[in-house]
Amino acid sequence: MKDLTTDIEETHPVGRLFDLDVIDINGQKLSRPSFRKCIICGCQAQECARTRKHSVNEMQSKIEEMLMEFDCQKV
């Protein structure tokens, strides 16, 4: 199940905008097999978030770009 959700996050055109958690029968969150990549620079997302490498405006612009591209693909 975790592999499926990771695949959706990494391959769907706007999948990176989601954080799909999978909880096991003991209530424990299953970890991803690899680190998430930053949608702006491609580095490890956790490091960019921790250091606040990108501004809110940069993130909003990238998200808007991703959503616009996805919407245009549907037409």
UniProtKB/TrEMBL annotation:
The keyword Transmembrane does not apply. It is an enzyme of class 2 (transferase). Its EC number is 2.7.7.61. One of its GO terms (biological process) is prosthetic group biosynthetic process. InterPro entries: CitX. It catalyses: apo-[citrate lyase ACP] + 2'-(5''-triphospho-alpha-D-ribosyl)-3'-dephospho-CoA = holo-[citrate lyase ACP] + diphosphate. Keywords: Nucleotidyltransferase, Transferase. This is citrate lyase holo-[acyl-carrier protein] synthase.
